[in-house]
Design goal:
The protein contains 24 helices and 22 strands. It has about 750 residues and is an alpha+beta fold. Strands 4, 5, 6, 7, 8 and 9 form a 6-stranded antiparallel β-sheet that branches. It is elongated, with a radius of gyration of 34 Å.
Length: about 750
C-alpha cells in the first residue's frame, strides 16, 4: 500500500468511525501516549491583561501579551453565540464533544478530492488551543478526541462555550470576542451589527491572515460564508441577510480609544509593575486613576487642536513620502495604496492618505481604511506651495504622495505631523488629585512625558510666586514701582515684552501687564534667596531657580506638574497639595491591593502660604484674566471666577498658561523638545491660553460662578485695594525705584503717585 493510501486509511479511521467505535479505537491507541490533564480547562483561569481606568471606570488602556475582557455567557449576545455556532459547530448542543457527521463530511471531501472542510467541534478547538499543539498528525487528533470527551463529561455545554468565546485567539492580540469587538470596531459586543458579528464569527478559522486589519478582503469573504450559514440554520432571515451583505464595514482606526490618556496609562503601568512585578500583565490587575473621563477627553482634544493650530501658522513642509502607484484607477490602485499606508501609522485625527491625483483645485486621496476623499477649497490652502507645476520638489503634492488629512465637520484639509509638543495637567485644587493629564501631542511618536519629565523655563508664569513672596516683604498691590529702563551692575538690561517702559505703576497694574522691569525691581527689593525659599513653599525646586535677578523673568527650571501644584496652592487658599494619580489597585476578583490615603485635611499643619497672601494673589490674578495679558480667559469662558497668568520665554521657546478656578488648577505648556522659537508673533496668550480655556469649559460645565468671597483675617481695604492690616497706618512699601525703597505712614495716594512721577 502506498504512503498516500495509508495516510487516507488512517484519516478515515479517525474521521469516519461512529462515536462509540471511535472512542474504543482511540482509547486503544491512547495507551501508547500520555494525555495531558484537563485541569487548565476545568479550572479555567484566563490570562487577563493589566487594565487602567479613569475614576469613573472608563478603560484607558490594557497591557499584556493577550488583550482579553472576560464576559460570562449570560452577558454575551445571543446573536454572537448563534453566529459562532452556525459556522463553527452547528450541532454543538447535540454531540458529546465530537461530531461524527461533521467528521464524516470532512473525511469524504478529503478522500474524494473535494473542498476541504473543518471537522473540529468547539470542544475540540478548545482542547487543541489550551492543551495541545497544532501539529498535523493522527496521534494529535486522537488525543484531541479523547480530551474532548473528557471535557464534555466534566463541564456543561454553556461553560464550554463560555470558555471558548473568551479564550479563542482572533487576531491583533485579541483573545475572546469581547476584546475583538473593541479592537476591530471600537464597541462592546452588544452594539455589534449582524454584519460585524458575522465578521468576528469568521475569525477563528484564520485569525492571523484573514482578520479585517491584516486583510479586509479575506475577512469579508469569510464573513459572507458566516452570513450564509447563519441564514441556513435560521439565525437570520432573508431581509437581514441582504442588509448585512450590503452594510459597509467601518473599522476602528488604529490607536482609537474611548479616552486618550496614553501617558497616564504608562505612569500607571510603571507604578503597578514596580509594586507587583511582571505577573501584573496576566493576572487581571485593575488600576483606577483619578482622571475624569470627560475632562481627559476635553484635555486631549484641546491639546491636539492647539498644537495643530500653531503648526498651521508655519509653512507647509511637504509630504511624508513619495511612492510609485501603478497606472489606472481600478482595484490594483486600491490594493497598492493600502500596501503603501501599512508603513505609515494611521491616527484618529491626522489620517494617513495616498494621493491619487492632485491639481491646484482638488486633491483626491485614499485613506488607510480604503475610503476615498476629495480635498478642495480652504482644505488646500496650507499646502498651496506644493500644488501646481512650479512647486518645489520637496513640497510637491502629486500622485503617490503620502500625507496627512484632517476632517473638519464634513470637509477634509491637508495637514502634517506638527513639530511642536505640548502638555496639559489639571489638579483638583483641594486634594491634588489629577483630573486630566496629556503628556504630549502623540504618545506613539513621543512617549516622553512633558508634564512630569520636562524641565522648562516658566517665563512670566513665575511672576505670581515672586509677587507672593514680595507681599511678605511689605510690598502691597498699590505699591508703586518704577517701570523705566533698568541696567544691573553686571550690564544686564532687560526690557518689557512690548518694548515699552514708563514711570511708576502699581504692582496690580504691573502683574496685569506682565511688566518685566517692575518684576526685576520687586525681586531686587525682596531678595533672590528669600524668593527662592518662598517658591519652594509652592513645590518648586529652589535649587533650580537662579540666585540672581534673571529669576524675575522666569529663567529657572520647572515642570508643568510643579506649576500646577503651585497654582493649586493659590486656588485653595494657601494649602500645600500633593499630586496623586493612582487611586486604587485591585486584583481580577476586585480585592483591593492598594488604596491611596484620603487627601490630607486642609489645616495649618500643611499650609504653604498665609490665607491672606493667597487671597490677595487671587485678586491680582483675577485682574490678569479680566483686563490684563490673559483677558481672553474670562471672555472665552464667560465667567468672572477665573484666575491665571500667561508665560512666554525669550524668543518664544516656551509658551505657558497657568490658571485656576477655586476648584481646579490647570497648566498648559507648548514648546519644542530641542528648544527653538515657536514663532515671532507667538505668545503664551496666543498658544497656551486657548488650550487651557477649551479644557476648562468642560471642567467647569455646570459649576456655578463663584466670585471671590470675604477676605480672611488680616486684610483691610484702603483706597480701593487690599492692604495687610498691620500696615494700614504705615509701614508698607510706598515706592520701589532704582536707588531706594521708601516707607510712609499710609498707603499710596494719587497725590503721592503724581509726586513720584515728577521727581527729578
Amino acid at each position: 500500500m502506498s504512503l498516500c493510501s495509508s495516510r487516507r486509511l488512517l484519516v478515515s479511521l479517525v474521521f469516519v468511525a461512529p462515536a462509540p467505535l471511535l472512542l474504543t479505537t482511540t482509547a486503544v491507541h491512547a495507551s501508547t501516549f500520555d494525555l495531558p490533564p484537563i485541569d487548565r480547562i476545568v479550572h479555567y483561569q484566563p490570562k487577563l491583561p493589566l487594565q487602567v481606568f479613569t475614576a469613573d471606570s472608563v478603560e484607558i488602556a490594557q497591557f499584556g501579551a493577550e488583550r482579553r475582557e472576560y464576559v460570562p455567557l449570560s452577558r454575551t449576545p445571543k446573536l454572537l453565540q448563534d453566529a459562532v455556532l452556525a459556522v463553527e459547530d452547528a450541532r454543538f448542543r447535540e454531540h458529546s464533544g465530537v461530531d461524527p457527521k461533521g467528521m464524516a463530511r470532512a473525511a469524504l471531501a478529503m478522500l474524494t478530492g473535494g473542498r476541504k472542510q473543518g471537522a473540529s467541534t468547539i470542544t475540540q478547538q478548545l482542547v487543541r488551543t489550551m492543551l495541545l499543539t497544532r501539529e498535523l498528525s493522527v496521534e494529535r487528533k486522537a488525543k484531541e478526541i479523547l480530551l474532548a470527551f473528557k471535557v464534555e463529561d466534566a463541564l456543561s455545554k454553556d461553560r464550554i462555550l463560555e470558555i471558548y468565546l473568551n479564550e479563542i485567539f482572533l487576531g491583533q492580540r485579541a483573545y475572546g470576542f469581547a476584546a475583538a469587538a473593541q479592537i476591530y470596531f471600537g464597541k462592546p459586543m452588544n452594539q455589534l451589527s449582524i454584519a460585524e458579528t458575522a465578521m468576528l464569527a469568521g475569525l477563528p478559522q484564520n485569525p492571523y491572515y484573514a482578520n479585517p486589519v491584516a486583510n479586509l478582503e479575506r475577512a469579508t469573504q469569510r464573513q459572507r460564508v458566516v452570513l450564509q450559514r447563519m441564514h441556513v440554520v435560521g439565525v437570520i432571515n432573508d431581509a437581514q441577510l441582504a442588509a448585512a451583505r450590503a452594510e459597509k464595514i467601518t473599522l476602528r482606526t488604529p490607536g482609537q480609544t474611548s479616552v486618550d490618556a496614553a501617558h497616564v496609562a504608562e505612569m500607571a503601568r510603571q507604578a503597578v509593575v514596580d509594586r507587583f512585578g511582571t505577573e501584573a500583565y496576566s493576572s487581571g490587575i485593575k488600576v483606577y486613576t483619578s482622571l475624569r473621563a470627560a475632562e481627559q477627553r476635553a484635555a486631549h482634544a484641546a491639546v491636539q487642536r492647539g498644537v495643530l493650530a500653531q503648526d498651521r501658522r508655519n509653512p507647509w513642509r511637504g509630504p511624508e513620502a513619495q511612492e510609485d502607484l501603478p497606472n489606472g484607477n481600478g482595484p490594483d490602485i486600491e490594493r497598492a495604496a493600502a500596501e503603501i499606508l501599512k508603513d505609515h501609522r494611521d491616527d484618529d485625527t491626522l489620517r494617513s492618505a495616498v494621493v491619487l491625483s492632485a491639481s491646484a483645485k482638488a486633491v483626491d486621496a485614499q485613506l488607510a481604511t480604503g475610503e476615498r476623499v476629495r480635498v478642495t477649497g480652504e482644505g488646500l490652502r496650507w499646502a498651496q506651495a506644493g500644488l501646481g507645476q512650479k512647486a518645489k520638489a520637496a513640497l510637491k503634492v502629486q500622485r503617490g504622495s503620502v500625507l496627512r488629512l484632517v476632517k473638519n465637520d464634513k470637509t477634509w484639509a491637508i495637514s502634517q505631523w506638527p513639530d511642536a509638543e505640548a502638555a496639559l495637567v489639571a489638579l483638583d485644587a483641594r486634594t491634588g488629585r489629577v483630573r486630566a493629564l496629556v503628556g504630549g501631542f502623540d504618545f506613539t511618536r513621543q512617549p516622553f512625558n512633558h508634564v512630569t519629565q520636562s524641565w522648562r523655563q516658566p517665563g512670566s508664569a513665575f511672576k505670581p510666586l515672586l509677587y507672593s513672596a514680595a507681599l511678605e516683604e511689605r510690598v502691597m498691590p498699590a505699591t508703586l514701582v518704577d517701570d523705566s529702563p533698568f541696567t544691573a551692575p553686571n550690564g544686564w538690561s532687560p526690557g518689557n515684552s512690548n518694548g515699552q517702559s514708563g514711570g511708576l505703576i502699581s504692582v496690580r497694574q504691573a502683574l496685569a501687564q506682565s511688566s518685566n522691569l517692575v518684576s526685576v525691581r520687586v525681586l531686587q527689593h525682596t531678595g533672590t534667596q528669600r524668593t527662592r525659599d518662598w517658591a519652594a513653599r509652592f513645590g518648586l525646586d529652589a535649587a533650580k531657580q537662579p540666585d540672581n535677578l534673571t529669576m524675575a523673568l522666569g529663567t529657572g527650571q520647572v515642570t508643568p506638574m510643579q506649576m500646577a501644584r503651585a497654582y493649586a496652592t493659590l486656588a485653595n487658599g494657601g494649602w500645600r497639595v500633593e499630586p496623586l494619580l493612582v487611586e486604587r489597585i485591585t486584583d481580577a476578583q476586585g480585592k483591593v491591593l492598594f488604596e491611596a490615603p484620603p487627601p490630607a485635611p486642609l489645616t495649618e499643619d500643611n499650609r504653604a502660604i498665609p490665607a491672606r497672601n493667597a487671597y490677595v494673589m487671587s485678586s491680582l490674578l483675577n485682574d490678569v484674566t479680566r483686563v490684563g495679558t490673559a483677558a481672553r480667559a474670562q471672555t472665552r469662558l464667560k465667567r468672572s471666577d477665573i484666575y491665571g497668568k500667561t508665560g512666554t520665554t525669550n524668543e518664544v521657546f516656551d509658551a505657558w498658561f497657568t490658571g485656576y478656578h477655586p476648584s481646579v488648577a490647570a497648566v498648559v505648556w507648548l514648546g519644542h523638545d530641542k528648544p527653538r522659537s515657536l514663532g515671532d508673533h507667538e505668545s503664551g496668550g496666543r498658544l497656551a491660553l486657548p488650550i487651557w480655556a477649551d479644557y476648562m469649559a468642560t471642567a467647569l460645565k455646570g459649576v456655578p460662578v463663584n466670585p471671590q468671597g470675604e477676605p480672611p483675617p488680616g486684610l483691610v481695604r484702603v483706597n480701593d485695594d487690599w492692604l495687610y492690616s498691620e500696615w494700614a497706618n504705615g509701614g508698607a512699601v510706598a515706592t520701589i525705584g532704582d536707588t531706594a525703597n521708601a516707607e510712609y505712614a499710609g498707603p499710596p495716594t494719587l497725590i503721592d503717585a503724581i509726586r513720584e512721577f515728577f521727581k527729578p
